[in-house]
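Summary for the lay section of the report: proteins are chains of building blocks that fold into shapes. Here we show the chain for Fibronectin type-III domain-containing protein and then a coded description of the shape we predicted for it.
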Amino acid sequence: MLKRQGTRRSTQKNTKILVLVSFVLVLALASFGVWPVKAEDYSSSSFIVRDPVINIAATQASSSSFQFYSSAGQLAPGESSSANFSYKAGFLYFATATTPVISATAGNGQVSFTWTASTGTFGNVTNYQLGTATSSGGSFTYESVGNVVSYTKTGLTNGTTYYFKVKAEAGGRTVAESAEVSSTPVAPADTGGGGGGGGGYSSPTTQTIVNFYGRAYPRSVITLLKDAQVAATTVAGSDANFQISLSNLSAGNYIFSIYSEDSKGNRSSLLTFPISVTAGATTNVSGIFIAPTIAVDKSQVKRGDNIAIFGQSVSEAEITISVNSDEEFFVKTKADKNGVYLNNFDTSVLEMGSHLAKSKAALAESISAYGKTVGFLVGTKTVLSEPSKCGKADLNCDGRVNLVDFSIAAFWYKRSLSESFKIIEQERLNADGKVNLTDFSIMAYYWTG
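The coded shape description reads as follows.
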């Protein structure tokens, strides 16, 4: 009995000592401004991380079987991986910026540039760097040009072809990089002078040309607008790449816009960029990346059911779909070889009411802007979307028959039709598998202007 009491007293004494030591340690930590930080367990459907250690420096832990990038508050960017799983954490997964579209116009010992502003997600671009090289794909020398969207590079050698890129930065880190664009500075044309009554000599006038290079959708029709008027159309290759050239332009400032139409007749958003054209110079516009089209299979969906979100983009592109609710949701999917993508989105995470979805594409190091938005309603029943009905002769399905439709038809005049345009011709023109004067007569009849 005495032994048990002695043991109890000893235990109580040890407990008091431990409490006292703990209290002293807390006071010591507080005196140095150090406070304990609590880390809670977090989990997924396949694993639980218990008692995570918060590392303010956000360093990297590793073993022979996995890598794990630790984080402060689970916000540090990084990716952990092993042979069995990959875990993405922090803003790195979705923090992206659109790729600038750059144009270069040659001058006398100089090249003038304009580019579209790079738009960031979860952040803002604070600076641009211009890279210069003397060979394609070569080593670029970069210089800071500030948070601007135009710049003139001087001190160049006439007759030498240079290659340029623009990098967008946020907080000193590169978040986007343009495609490469080339330009060759040229001396002004020598108009000559009179001499000995023999008359002056004028060198041949150099053409004023603007070239557009970019990506759309495989075999899609691309339409180029100049100051809101159709200037040219072309068809993308099977790899979705396209090129359009405009010549015999007058010097001046223009607003160019470009769009494409997918195999279902859905039209992309307009990509617009201002360009200053110099007489006798060639301007190259590179890195155009037309945003994906988007559509849904239901105008209203019963909460908890799936809604199909689909569209078309570049072949094998990674598609990011954003669904706006009280909380914004992001899902990723991949386009197939024809550029077609599909995601069956689970609406159980959405609130009742109206929602909007949009998508963007990424391929290699290029990222498009978000395209058009499409709306749907989450409710208590499901209503399928009705296919949009395009009127006779309305080739771009905008509810009007005007010069845009005429330009599209003119492109296919006496040419072999693509598979997608065969469907349009069958439904909205003469349905004889070709474009000829009969089709233009139909357009004239339905003309709205």
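Put simply, here is one thing we learned. Helices lie at 2-31, 403-411, 419-428, 437-445.
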